[in-house]
Amino acid sequence: MYQYLQKIALIFTVILVISSVKSGYTASSQPNKNANPPKQDIEYPLIIHVYKKYRAESLKAWCTPDPLNARNVDCAFTHKRINPPKPVRMPYTVEDAIKADPSLVAEFRKNPSAFKKEFERNLKIVEKEIPSGLISSKVRIKLEKYLNDPAMGPKLKRYYKRLLSARTLKELSDIQYYHESQTCSLYINTFNLKFRYIRKGQWLFQQETPGLWSNVLKSYELTSKNGGSLWTLTETRVPTQGANEKPSQTVWSWEWGGEYELHCDFISFF
Questions:
Q1: Could you tell me the pTM of the whole model?
Q2: Whose CB has fewer CB within 10 Å in the chain, the N or C terminal residue?
Q3: Structural contact between residues 214 and 225, judged by C-beta atoms closer than 8 angstroms
């Protein structure tokens, strides 16, 4: 009787296996639609263009769905920022020097008299060397060549003419300081982020290890109302041990672009 029951059980098992093969899959092999939704059901961010509020700063990205994982999208970002002028005036007194470089305070306190004497000696050396170097024939030829360039604007020509006419270190310093006060700088950087799909209208990038130089963990969240094409980017920075900043969060929005009133006459690239 026992052997007969074993044969019945074996036949029943074979029937179940055959029926599952004919149907094309077993219950355990059915795909989980929630775990990895079909690619055609995901609304990907393809173009992102966002700005910082009240700042001449923007992020623009072109995104491409990951061909190996429908839940990922690779975005190539370009970061642009116009920095306001930051002029630096040459110090002519000990007080100005310490104000410009606070690290000199400790050295000054050791021996104020010796520090002042050394400062005045170095200032006289610079006063003798810089003007002679400025009006040398080599520099003059270079500046005059710039002045003959038809593409140069009137403000830049005026600046070079003033440099050519400078005769003292203070005059040269004042000319340079005024020029720097009218010069903004343009910063451009590129980087790539891989976002993973969270839900409709929400994608997330999380840094696993802090940056090499900043010791800061970053995360970027992309959100869009109703899964549309207008995206908002939220940048979160969490400092780790050794970082020199506090936790912060910045919102970059498509609503805050893309015009900005410049407070300068010139743009420098760096």
A1: 0.71
A2: N
A3: no
